[in-house]
């Protein structure tokens, strides 16, 4: 019965190591997704420390490849030293992922205040030229999120760009996709997006942080199961060794 228990635990552990390899790829993908998305919205949220959780989960993803290899070798060879190392590394990674979750919540709470300050500056410096980074960022956000202005399209009337152009129109990125003849004129507000960009940018950035948080929590749970199975194998193997030395019967 005891040997059967060890075999079952070893099977689960090997399966979990295979999951770790898959998890490593997913973690690296999520980290890269955060980096790419942040690059699209960095003008609206200039706190680079927000990328710390993404950096950490990419590092954890890379480490999980190594952990999976150590775990498989240690399980197949029934190495007590290897399994102990496996458990210790998993514990460290688990703690790291808990830190990622905490940081994710901290930066998620900061998003609204940070965006509120940054978006005012971005819209103020808009000049309508494609080479300008702030202008590209503004047009990109308005097209992607289907919004116009910080709170609504009338915000454009307070910008230097609007006053200089003197054509009573907003950027073409404010035009609805269904309005084929839209030229940004305020005389036809029905052709313009009505959503406020600030709220949508905040929502998008908070969604990104939630992706990081949920991924970290999911794999932290898997790692707990991995540590439990490794400990079971270690304990049963130690018990079997002690009974073998003492001449007892392994139950």
UniProtKB/TrEMBL annotation:
It is found in: Membrane. Keywords: Membrane, Transmembrane, Transmembrane helix. It is a multi-pass membrane protein. This is Tetraspanin. The keyword Secreted does not apply. It comes from the Eukaryota. SUPFAM superfamilies: Tetraspanin. It comes from Erinaceus europaeus. The chain crosses the membrane at residues 12-36, 48-71, 83-107, 212-235. One of its GO terms (cellular component) is plasma membrane. The keyword Cell inner membrane does not apply.
């Amino acid at each position: 019965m005891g040997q059967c228990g060890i075999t079952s635990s070893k099977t689960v552990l090997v399966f979990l190591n295979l999951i770790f390899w898959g998890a490593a790829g997913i973690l690296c993908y999520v980290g890269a997704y955060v980096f790419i998305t942040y690059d699209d919205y960095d003008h609206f949220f200039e706190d680079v420390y927000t990328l710390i959780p993404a950096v950490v989960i990419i590092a954890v993803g890379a480490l999980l490849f190594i952990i999976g290899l150590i775990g498989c070798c240690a399980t197949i060879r029934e190495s007590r030293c290897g399994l102990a190392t496996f458990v210790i590394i998993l514990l460290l990674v688990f703690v790291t992922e808990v830190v990622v979750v905490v940081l994710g919540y901290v930066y998620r709470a900061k998003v609204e205040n940070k965006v509120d300050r940054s978006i005012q500056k971005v819209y103020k410096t808009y000049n309508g030229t494609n080479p300008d980074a702030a202008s590209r960022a503004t047009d990109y956000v308005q097209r992607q999120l289907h919004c116009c202005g910080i709170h609504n399209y009338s915000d454009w009337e307070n910008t230097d760009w609007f006053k200089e152009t003197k054509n009573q129109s907003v950027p073409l990125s404010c035009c609805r996709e269904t309005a084929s003849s839209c030229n940004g004129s305020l005389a036809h507000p029905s052709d313009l997006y009505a959503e406020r960009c600030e709220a949508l940018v905040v929502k998008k950035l908070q969604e990104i942080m939630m992706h990081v948080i949920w991924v970290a929590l999911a794999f932290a749970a898997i790692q707990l199961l991995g540590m439990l199975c490794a400990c079971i194998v270690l304990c049963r193997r130690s018990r079997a060794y002690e009974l073998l030395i003492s001449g007892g019967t392994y139950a």
